[in-house]
Amino acid sequence: MNQEPSIIELEHTIGFSGKIPKSVHVHSNGEDFLYISGACIVVTNLMNPHKQHFLRGHDNQISCLALSNNGLLVASGQIGDNSDVIIWDFEKKKPKFRLSEHDYEVVVVQFSHNDQLLFSCGNAQDKKLFVWDTSNGYIVASCIIFPEKITTMRWGGYAKDIKLRDTAKYQFATAGNKQICLWKLDSKTGQIEHEFINTGSVIREYKCLEYSKNREDYLFAGTTSGDFLCFQIKNKLLICVITVAALGVQSIQAININHIIVGCGNGQVNLYKTNDNQIDSVASTQLFGSVNSISCMVSGQETMCATDKGFIYRVRNDNLQKVLHCENHTDSVLFLAYPPGISDKFASCSEDGSIRLWNIEQDYLVVSRCFASNAGHPLCLTHNDEIVLSGWQDGKIRMFNSENGNLIWQIDNAHKGGVQSICLGKNLKFFCSGGLEGEVRVWEMRSREMISHLKEHTHKVSKVKLIGDQDAHVLSSSKDRACKFIYYSFLIFLLVLCWDLKNEKRINAHIQRMGGINSFDTTQDHQIAITTGQDRQITYWNLNQSNPTKIIHTSKDNKADDECMCLHLSNNGKYFATGGSQQVVKIWEFSTGKLVGEGKGHSGTINTVCFSFDDKQIISGGCDGNIFVWNIFD
To answer: Can you tell me the distance from the alpha carbon of 42 to that of 55, in angstroms, rounded to the nearest whole number?
Structure first.
């Protein structure tokens, strides 16, 4: 288990943290755009989605992202115990400075207009504001955050003197706690001055700020009330309040000297013209999801708009005509599956409430998507080229059309507490489901009637699998535990049960000590099963015997904590893949139990792995909301 990884290579990643403000930035080279994906920054070519680079240096969710105006530097901050700010060298794709002064969470990072300074501030617990020198990583100025929290920030240009001439002082604006504050910074002395803007009777919670393109005329402030305020910079006066749309103004971007684009929580995007203290609406369009990020392309002709639903659009600046550029999951990916006999398409389900069907050959295009209102989120699925069969958090089983994502039918009250696992028989006449309370149920496809109810598990059924030529048997695993109090500790037993469906009886039980079974798989002849779970081990079983035939540890260091959450055996039976809490996809040789490859890239626990039908690729999904496509070299 000490050999170097050799047979796995990252091909592509899908995933976007769209709920974070300003999580997408178009690079000034006109070729790339950057976005947050869990604890990773992804740099993707605008024309070729296969051309990706990854900036990895954070150990928790990235909470803010900024790109310098010249495109040479990238800055990012994260949440958690190690709430560092990292300044990246874009060309080298490596960290340049790591700034470790914040605690809890970094809320905002932003480069100054000349890229010489970087602003960062923490959340209400951190209460710290810093300005950094981007040439050496040193602190230029710092203070305790006032007001108590800052939700958004924008740099202006240089502050003006009484004759409206540039001074050596920088200016920037912050918003939070229903107040807007203007700051002046002397970068040579580190002295900071601030004053609040008087908004009179207009009291708002602010979501975003933006200066006009010349940084001299106006300051715009988007609010949770669905309007934005416009201030004249030279005299700090509120000149107008423009009502836009419901669910708040989430983002504002100045695209030229007298035009701004405004994105709203209801998906509406508006184009406004500013002239002589007057603001007029020019055009409007509708996107899917809250528009949390707007970034103008260097050409000035297009803008990239991203939503909290994972959709990234290219929008023309003159008339707001839109084209969907890509889409992603925005929350934990729970399950992935290829259809039988197909290697260029797969399906995914996520805690963001969606099921998506992807086509690898068409640049990872989503060919259809499935949603259900007021159903929670999907927990599991199985599918072929015609239908998607899925289990949901609300306890219902739903079937969708694979081509258009339309709901075909649903079974109400299939399992109390949620349908945790589901599988489809080879003959397509039956399907099997497992529930939160330990039930295993078999259903007739045509009538959708329950034909078998098997109850011996006492905890969540983690997986079910129909086996045998006629789907006559089902294998189920669970996190059951029978406890005995010995030496002030628990002795825990876990079960893999094999059922005879014809007679509705259990044929065999395989008991694993110390921890729940999270996943299993079987060989093609259904003679051998491998299980993995909370015991941090991989166990081989002969289904005709009650005791395990082989046990291997999931970590090189047996003391390391790597709980495997998922396991899948290749179709040729040569390898199996696992993923879990160490956030690494591991490839094992089935016959020897030898670790032959590791795929690193996820920034959260891996929930699901799956081999393609031709065994040339593996897909993995995790709590970071990412789907990784890996190439396998045999």
So the answer is: 6
As a whole number of angstroms, the distance between CA 211 and CA 216 comes to 8
Please spell the DSSP secondary structure of 193-230, one letter per residue: EEEE---TT----EEEEEE-TTSSSEEEEEETTSEEEE
95 CB burial (10 A radius; 0-12, 13-18, 19+): middle
Choose among 252, 256, 236: nearest CA to 244: 252
pLDDT band at 468 (very low <50, low <70, confident <90, very high): confident
Picking from 464, 467, 553, 480, the residue whose alpha carbon sits closest to that of residue 512 is: 480
Give tens-digit pLDDT for 360-394.
998 899 999 999 988 999 999 999 999 999 999 99
End-to-end Cα separation, the chain, in angstroms: 18
φ, ψ for residue 493, nearest 5 deg: -115, 135
How far is it, in rounded angstroms, from Cα 121 to Cα 507? 61
Separation in Å, CA 273 to CA 17, 388, 402: 31, 47, 44
In whole angstroms, what is the distance from residue 136 CA to residue 121 CA?
19
Q: How far apart are CA 562 and CA 543, in angstroms?
A: 26
Number of helical H runs and strand E runs in the chain: 0, 58
Q: What is the pLDDT of the chain when averaged over all its residues?
A: 89
| 6, burial (CB in 10 Å: exposed 0-12, middle 13-18, buried 19+) | exposed
412's CB contacts (< 8 A; 6+ apart) are 395, 396
Tokens of 153: 């920030």
Across the range 451-465, mean pLDDT stands at: 85
Token pair recorded at residue 244: 């836009």
Burial annotation 163-186 (CB, 10 A radius, 16+ → b, else e): eeeeeebbbbbbbbeebbbbbbbb
Of 270, 283, 289, the C-alpha closest to 228 is 270
Beta-ladder partners of 423? 432
Peptide bond preceding 147: is omega within 30 degrees of 0, i.e. cis?
Answer: yes
User: Over the stretch 266-297, which tens digit does the pLDDT of each residue have?
Assistant: 999 999 999 888 999 999 999 999 999 999 99
Q: Omega before 378 cis (within 30°)?
A: no
Going along the chain from its start, the domains and CATH numbers come out as: 16-322 (2.130.10.10), 333-632 (2.130.10.10)
Pairing of strands 450-455, 439-444: antiparallel
- Cα–Cα nearest to 568, from 606, 519, 527: 519
Measured between alpha carbons, how far is 99 from 408 in angstroms, rounded to an integer? 53
Which residue matches tokens 């999931």? 554
